[in-house]
């Protein structure tokens, strides 16, 4: 019997965020234990002491697995790795399970073989009876990075829409590391076990409304559509625009009210950001609202916001300049971030999309996410055209049976998910998996990249053949590449960013 615990040499805060996001059983390596029976893989993210090196080599000889983060520590002497700065690295891997990741936006120094794409960043190798994987950067450090830039987003429907988002494509970094973990388990004929990402079998669907400057009529139009499809949404209120009629939002049944700031403005001043949040909370409180969530105007996450959030007790925030298109994760201010897809109908209107083309774009994004059982989270502004697009999207949500949650409900689930502890061990001789937890959290058990099974953790025994099976769909035998913007496109993005910056409201 072998424990399916992820060991790590240095369990720092950044790595804890990533391992919690993954939902795996993990701990800092205890070298007093028998490594082979205690850890299905060990992450080497710090220089191992010389006196421990022989224990790691014995672990490999017994069939252990090692993942090296940012350094190869001499385990790949046949490859010449060099440090180089990379903004974007394209995917040239042909490994099953990795095909859907088109590129990594890293904006950092990496240690890679020659000047290749992701193939130069990742290496797998058999050593003795075990497996080793090399990753030429620290995924935890990149996922915790702060910084934003305007990016174009791929579209097979029309011109590429763009938005100011996190420099690092944290969703792709997360998915790459998830696939590395899975791959190294599968190479050793071990299952990969993690907590599921939804309270139910079906992925989560959330809908966010940023109420920027809107009036009652536009609010009611959106609510009527939500009510018609029985969709719960989260309304982030620009309080100043509605302060004369805030109580009107009490008429919206089965909806969550959250804060978008008193003024729809941003600043690099911690004092001004803090005052904008405080005034908005005070106005909402006086109107009888208890608020647990916040999203910054323009989605801007900067040092001023990071420091300001320490003064409040938000359950979650949602800024796509911190993270987008990813699973929830704790940010550097220790608040839960709920990332969304950052393109809205306004982004598409700027690229001359028709209503039909807008629907096709959002349906494309939805299909891509559902193929990998990821949350689908879209947003809308009441004053922007294109509301009819979401009538068709909501029809798809109902057809797919997605788990519709408010942001607060998703945050509550994620908090419980992080608190849920479990242990799992596997006997390869008879294929028996022993799973220990007293909670009803759903778990995913994978033996291969293309499919897995879901089971409730509080079941004492189960038969793999009878458990719910889900399928993952990846692009077949082709590399998904998004060309780097040319000079003209980069100049247009710069012009858009400059125009956007000049027209932002300042606190």
Topology record:
Elements: E1 2-3, E2 6-8, H1 13-22, E3 26-28, H2 35-38, E4 41-44, H3 50-61, E5 65-69, E6 81-90, E7 103-113, E8 122-127, E9 130-135, H4 139-143, E10 148-152, E11 162-166, H5 170-187, E12 192-195, E13 204-210, H6 216-228, E14 234-237, H7 239-242, E15 256-259, H8 270-286, E16 293-294, H9 303-308, E17 316-317, E18 329-330, E19 336-337, H10 345-349, H11 355-370, E20 376-380, H12 387-400, E21 403-404, H13 407-419, E22 423-427, E23 432-436, E24 442-446, E25 451-456, E26 468-471, H14 487-503
Parallel strand pairs: 2-3, 2-4, 4-5, 5-9, 13-14, 13-20, 13-21, 14-15, 16-17, 17-19
Antiparallel strand pairs: 1-22, 6-7, 8-9, 10-11, 12-24, 18-19, 22-23, 24-25, 25-26
Helix pairs in contact: 11-12
């Amino acid at each position: 019997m072998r424990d399916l615990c992820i060991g790590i040499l240095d369990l720092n805060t950044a790595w804890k965020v990533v391992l919690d996001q993954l939902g795996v059983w993990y701990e800092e390596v205890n070298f007093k234990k028998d490594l082979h029976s205690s850890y299905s893989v060990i992450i080497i993210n710090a220089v191992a002491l010389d006196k421990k090196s022989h224990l790691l080599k014995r672990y490999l000889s017994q069939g252990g697995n090692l993942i090296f983060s940012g350094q190869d520590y001499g385990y790949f002497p046949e490859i010449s790795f060099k440090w180089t700065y990379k903004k974007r690295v394209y995917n040239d891997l042909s490994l099953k399970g990795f095909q859907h990741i088109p590129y990594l936006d890293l904006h950092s120094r990496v240690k890679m073989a020659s000047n290749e794409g992701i193939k130069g960043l990742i290496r797998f190798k058999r050593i003795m009876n075990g497996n080793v994987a090399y990753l030429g950067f620290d995924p935890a450090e990149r996922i915790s990075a702060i910084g934003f830039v305007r990016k174009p987003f791929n579209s097979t429907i029309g011109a590429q829409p763009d938005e100011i988002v996190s420099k690092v494509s944290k969703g792709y970094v997360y998915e790459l590391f998830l696939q590395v973990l899975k791959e190294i388990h599968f190479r050793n004929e071990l299952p990969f076990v993690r907590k599921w990402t939804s309270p139910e079998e079906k992925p989560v669907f959330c809908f966010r409304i940023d109420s920027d400057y809107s009036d009652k009529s536009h609010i009611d139009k959106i609510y009527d559509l939500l009510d018609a499809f029985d969709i719960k949404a989260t309304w982030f209120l620009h309080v100043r625009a509605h302060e004369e009629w805030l109580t009107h939002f009490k008429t919206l049944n089965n909806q969550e009210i959250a804060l978008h700031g008193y003024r729809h403005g941003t600043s690099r001043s911690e004092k001004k950001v803090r005052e904008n949040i405080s005034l908005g909370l005070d106005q909402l409180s006086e109107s009888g609202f208890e608020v647990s969530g916040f999203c910054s105007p323009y989605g801007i996450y900067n040092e001023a916001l990071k420091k300001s959030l320490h003064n409040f007790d938000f359950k979650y925030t949602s800024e796509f300049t911190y993270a987008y298109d990813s699973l929830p994760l704790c940010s550097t201010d220790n608040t839960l971030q709920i990332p969304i897809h950052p393109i809205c109908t306004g982004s598409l209107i700027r690229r001359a999309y028709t209503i039909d083309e807008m629907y096709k774009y959002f349906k494309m994004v939805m299909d891509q996410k559902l193929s990998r059982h990821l949350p689908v989270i879209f947003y809308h502004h009441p004053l922007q055209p294109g509301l009819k697009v979401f009538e068709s999207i909501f029809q798809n949500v109902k057809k797919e049976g997605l788990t519709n949650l408010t942001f607060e409900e998703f945050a509550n689930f994620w908090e419980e998910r992080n608190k849920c502890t479990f242990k799992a061990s596997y006997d390869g001789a008879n294929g028996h998996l022993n799973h220990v937890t007293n909670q009803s959290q759903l778990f995913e058990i994978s033996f291969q990249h293309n499919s897995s099974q879901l089971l409730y953790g509080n079941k004492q025994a189960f038969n793999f053949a009878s458990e719910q099976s889900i399928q993952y769909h990846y692009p077949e035998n082709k590399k998904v590449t998004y060309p780097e913007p040319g000079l003209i496109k980069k100049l247009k993005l710069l012009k858009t960013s400059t125009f956007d910056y000049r027209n932002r409201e300042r606190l």
